[in-house]
Design brief:
heterodimer, A: alpha/beta, 3 domains, 43% helix, B: alpha/beta, Rossmann fold, 5 helices
Chain lengths: 340, 135
């Protein structure tokens, strides 16, 4: 087993940007170690300066390669980059194969880049369970820019909108037509679109479909429904000053670096817009509200587990099976026991 | 809840050196995933520096090196030296590939915990890792 660095030393190292301390701190938080809360608390108190950029899109659109190319681009300007790359945990074995680093091998020997792969574990919506906490740690470690790559997202994995300052939705030619583009979900959370692999046939059509979607929509949706709860991820797009953000659709060829400088510029423009419009504070408010919500839920869930023993649970399910009690009444009974 | 969120063993699977035969490494990576480990796969043509950096950033418990090129006697000790220098002397280092017996003995003396030759079952490797971390 890894030798244990004392918590205080770990926190000091993390705040000094020491790489081993950062790596071990992320593991502690991910494993919900007993000092995880202390570590996150310390990181929270040392808010850094990072711009959090989410990179999402369907599997195979080139997210990892684009993240790597963006990191190169930031490094050329002297900015340090933290990367969090999320891949799915197997629902069957609990294991995971984290393969994003295969496309991110060009940063060897560069202390200004830190790449961490993360399995989703029980997290949903395209991110890992401890993504938000890991991002706090990367921020506290002092990185200028943080790139978060989601799992290959389907149409509704929009959790990244609640975590990132700026969301890039990556598309590739041939992934769908105009009707795909006006469906709800992933496309609604983009601050910037990147049509990657733009050297391939159909790139112009993909750009046109996205532009048509943006034009017909008069900007993106203002709120998105997430887990049944309205999230004002887009609220500031049509702020009262009328200085809204107009969502660019950019072509990139990540593998050769084509268009990546323009994408980087768009991210910096969005960052400036977030600061000037006040949207940055709105996004942080949303982020913190959700963090609070999920911590409260986790605590309540843990207490609920303690309220009802497995035997009691089985007993209740048995009564449901015999139709002695209906699901609603059974649930109400459990909640009542919990509240008492 | 504690059951679901147990500490998961993280394993780096890397292929140092210049040969591009990564089928074995991929088979192992897949088998370890199915055994419930979190496997970080880094791909082919990795230098010892790249492997050590990945091991550090990913905070892995195990470093698995797949080598078929014959360069194991230079590559493995270098990886171990770098791991130790950066504070990861506790990582379990495993080597798979075509390694002559006399080399295997020397590698173990240099800090490699186990050498798995051709014909090793994935179950054997999984059991070795599980044993190392049980208790």
């Amino acid at each position: 087993m890894p030798k244990r660095i004392p918590t205080r030393q770990l926190i000091d190292g993390l705040l000094n940007g020491e790489r081993l301390a950062l790596a071990r701190a992320i593991s502690r938080v991910e494993d919900e170690a007993e000092d995880a809360a202390r570590i996150v608390q310390a990181a929270f108190a040392h808010k850094g300066k990072a711009h959090l950029v989410g990179i999402t899109g369907a599997p195979g659109t080139g997210k990892s390669t684009l993240v790597s190319a963006l990191a190169d681009n930031y490094r050329e300007s002297g900015l340090t980059v933290g990367v969090l790359a999320v891949d799915p945990t197997s629902p069957l074995s609990g294991g995971a194969l984290l393969g994003d680093r295969v496309r991110m091998t060009g940063h060897s020997g560069d202390e200004g880049v830190f790449i961490r792969s993360m399995a989703t574990r029980s997290g949903a919506g395209g991110l890992a369970k401890a993504s938000a906490e890991a991002l706090l740690l990367l921020d506290a470690a002092g990185f200028d820019r943080i790139l978060v790559e989601t799992v290959g997202a389907g149409q509704a994995e929009v959790e990244i909108a609640a975590v990132a300052d700026t969301v890039v939705v990556v598309e590739a030619p041939g992934m769908g037509d105009e009707v795909q583009a006006i469906k709800a979900g992933l496309l609604e959370i983009a601050d910037v679109f990147a049509v990657n692999k733009a050297d391939r046939k159909g790139a112009d059509r993909a750009v046109a479909a996205l532009e048509m979607m943006l034009e017909t929509g008069g900007g993106a949706a203002q709120t998105i429904l997430h887990h049944g709860e309205l999230m004002d991820a887009r609220a500031a797009v049509s702020d009262e000053s009328g200085q809204g953000w107009s969502i660019p659709v950019l072509k990139t060829v990540a593998v050769s670096g084509g268009g990546v400088a323009r994408l980087r510029d768009a991210l910096e423009e969005h960052r400036a817009w977030l600061q000037e419009s006040g949207a940055l504070a709105d996004r942080e408010r949303t982020r913190l509200a959700r963090m609070l919500q999920s911590l409260v839920e986790a605590e309540l869930r843990a207490r609920l587990e303690r309220t009802l023993s497995p035997a009691q649970r089985q007993e209740l399910v048995g009564r449901m099976l015999r139709r002695e009690v209906d699901p609603y009444s059974a649930a109400a009974d459990v909640v009542k026991r919990f509240a008492d | 809840m504690t059951q679901v969120n147990r500490n998961r063993i993280r394993v780096l699977i890397a292929k140092p050196g210049l040969d591009g035969h990564d089928r074995g490494a991929k088979v192992i990576a897949r088998a370890l995933r199915d055994a419930g480990f979190e496997v970080i796969y880094t791909g082919i043509r990795q230098t010892p520096q790249m492997i050590a950096e990945a091991a550090l950033q990913e905070d892995v418990d195990v470093v698995g090196l797949s080598i078929l090129s014959g360069a194991h006697m230079t590559l493995c000790p270098k990886v171990i030296e770098l791991l130790h220098a950066q504070g990861q002397e506790d990582a379990l280092v495993l080597v798979g590939g075509i390694i002559p017996d006399e080399d295997a003995a020397q590698l173990k003396a240099a800090g490699v915990h186990a050498v798995f030759g051709p014909g090793t079952s994935t179950a054997e490797i999984i059991a070795f890792i599980q044993d190392a971390f049980s208790g």
